[in-house]
Amino acid sequence: MTRSASAEPGVAAKAGRPASVRWRATTQSSGRYDAAARLQNALGSVTDPAVRGWIGEQRAAYLHHGDAHIAQQPLSRALDDNPFVLKPIGGVTPAQLRPTAAQAEACAAYLKDTYADATAQLLGVQVLLQKLVWKDKDRADEAEQAWESLGRHLGFIGTRPEKLYDTGPDNLWILGPARSAVIELKPGCVTDTISKHDLDQLGGSVRWAAQTLPDVTQRIPVIVHPSREPHSQAITVEGTRVVTPAKWTELTAAVRFWAEALTRGQHRWQDPRPWPNSSRSTS
User: Fold this and answer.
1) CB–CB of 74/60 below 8 Å?
2) H helix or E strand, kind and range, residue 179
3) What is the CA radius of gyration of the chain?
4) Are 181 and 159 in contact (CB under 8 A)?
5) C-alpha to C-alpha distance for 113 and 218, rounded to whole angstroms
6) Other residues' Cβ atoms within 10 Å of the Cβ of residue 208
7) Could you give the angle at the alpha carbon of 169 between the alpha carbons of 201 and 231, nearest 5°?
8) Residue 154, SS3?
């Protein structure tokens, strides 16, 4: 079998390659390490975690050609910044999520870090709420991303375990020290009932959450689905909450009211303190 000229220098020499081929292999290897070093230098000036993770992934790719084992460490660090880069060979251990110290403070901090001003915040929320589209399976990933972002807007810790670890629920919100919402999103379904498969998936996700986060003892099963009726063969999950289109309309109306209220008054949108003379109950 003929080996590629891009093989490592030692491999080329053992195969009896001419000196010109060994020189070319050495040059290519050196070039990869130079590229990895330049990317490492660039990381110091990047503040956006998503971009920093992507650059770290590219650096790991260059290092992989020389030593796949060495490349795993920078890839793991890249994953800490950007959860959607390539996963290390050894897999990823689900993070032990902790609730925010105070929901209002977490909400204000997130909005301040995400938006330049109150108007941008209002527009951002409106765009976010439009990303969940009913009975359109092609937009499932967009809906899952929007639901995670909604949780962060409201001051919760939100994550997408199934996307990150290939197991667990579509979304997981940590609501308090011992309380979470285990969420499966099925807005793209067109059936009149919730299928056995979808409810089995919700039950499996609740069990995954119990094993992964044992300290979070209250797990609220939530399914986003056009119907609230289970199929005759489906086994329901105790305590399940169903977000139907009607309930989604109620939720989006409340979130829009909240987002609009944040625009009234200077810097209110980034102030965690209670608002005096509120005209609408939050209960």
Assistant:
1) yes
2) strand 179-185
3) 24
4) no
5) 30
6) 20
7) 30
8) coil
Task: Compute the distance between CA of residue 185 and CA of residue 204 in angstroms, rounded to an integer.
Answer: 14
CB of 37 closer than 8 Å to CB of 66: no
For residue 29, with 0-12 CB atoms within 10 Å meaning exposed, 13-18 middle and 19 or more buried, which class applies?
middle
CA geometry: angle at 189 spanning 185 and 192, to 5°? 120
Q: What's the pLDDT tens digit per position in 162-215?
A: 988 889 999 999 998 899 999 999 999 999 999 999 999 999 999 999 999 999
Instruction: Give the helix, strand, coil percentages of the chain, each rounded to 5.
Output: 50, 10, 40
The secondary structure of 185-214 as a DSSP string is: E-TT---SSB-HHHHHHHHHHHHHHHHH-T
Q: Which of 151, 188, 190, 157 is nearest to 174 (CA)?
A: 157
Q: Is the pTM of this model over 0.90?
A: no
Secondary structure of residue 68 in the 3-state scheme: helix
225 three-state secondary structure = coil
Length of the chain: 283
Tens of pLDDT along 24-82? 444 455 666 677 777 777 777 777 777 877 787 777 787 776 667 666 777 667 766 77
